[in-house]
């Protein structure tokens, strides 16, 4: 009936614009539709069908007209597994340096995970990463360039180191194989402690080539070493050069033979540097390096910011292919008389593909002996692991 009324209305004198549209089939249809709309809706003036359709468009559709379908996949995605204090320190350090175009967070604690993700998203105006996502499993990590492993159990009072390691191995068994499937071409950067042993476990579980499995190792130990040397000399630590190698822990090895400022080797100025005979007691600098983590944990309950900044430094070198030298944990079998498959920190050149080269340190006999001792200490624990 409404349609009939619309048709009967067409017999009346119409405006010139309407009469012109009637000359084509499409024009006649448009006039019929307008007649219907006048009867079923409160239209006070003639409106075209296109104008009515535009009323149903979303704000986004009214605001933005697409010219080209852009590729939306991330080009430089980073995933962090574990949103504890260390994981979130890594996250904020990476975000504030603009090192990724997508950050993914993974953890089994759903509420904390969502809260941490939202907290970062709400601050996204202040950094340049456009996308932050989270999930309980590895699906959220798909196509990552770097996956950072910070998840792990904390040592309980009276717990042996071997038992702690075994618990963390069991955690990695639930994480690493799925990560390897989701991002088969990524670099795995292990931060969880004991980092050297867990980097070895990650290498075995992932099936990745050794150059793509990296432990954060003594990158932080070396930074502490340089800071403490600089403090003693009154020189900015960036101008103090020195390396701590071996285990990230009690058996780490300070390379006193290479410590220098502006190319001036301190050992040449003070031959007993770092030895028991040293009357200036420079050896205490390394002791402070080893004990500093324990002191921070005693004072605030955990370490976070220094390791987070250290990890971001490694990520920067990897993502930007800077080929900088870092003391990171890698497989050292065949070096310095080490015959077992252990991971220890030595100076490595890092780039897009992970560890591309190692620097052959000119160690003195004492330093080489301590490095071998560090390897033996790790192997004593590693050989009894079950995975």
From TrEMBL:
Coiled coil stretches, renumbered: none
Catalytic activity: (S)-lactate + NAD(+) = pyruvate + NADH + H(+)
GO biological process per UniProt: lactate metabolic process
Pathway in which the depicted protein is active: Fermentation; pyruvate fermentation to lactate; (S)-lactate from pyruvate: step 1/1
Lactate/malate dehydrogenase N-terminal domain span: 77-215
Active site: 248
Family annotation (Pfam families): Ldh_1_C, Ldh_1_N
Entries under InterPro entries matching the protein: L-lactate/malate_DH, L-lactate_DH, L-lactate_DH_AS, Lactate/malate_DH_C, Lactate/malate_DH_N, Lactate_DH/Glyco_Ohase_4_C, NAD(P)-bd_dom_sf
Key words of the record: Cytoplasm, NAD, Oxidoreductase
Domain spans labelled Lactate/malate dehydrogenase C-terminal: 218-381
Localization per Swiss-Prot or TrEMBL: Cytoplasm
EC number, as in UniProt: 1.1.1.27
Molecular functions (GO terms): L-lactate dehydrogenase (NAD+) activity
CDD domains on file: LDH_1
Domain of life: Eukaryota
GO cellular component, one term: cytoplasm
Binding sites annotated in the UniProt record for NAD(+): 82-87, 107, 168, 191-193
Listed PROSITE patterns: L_LDH (PS00064)
Family: Belongs to the LDH/MDH superfamily. LDH family.
UniProt-listed PANTHER family: L-2-HYDROXYCARBOXYLATE DEHYDROGENASE (NAD(P)(+)), L-LACTATE DEHYDROGENASE A CHAIN
Name of protein: L-lactate dehydrogenase
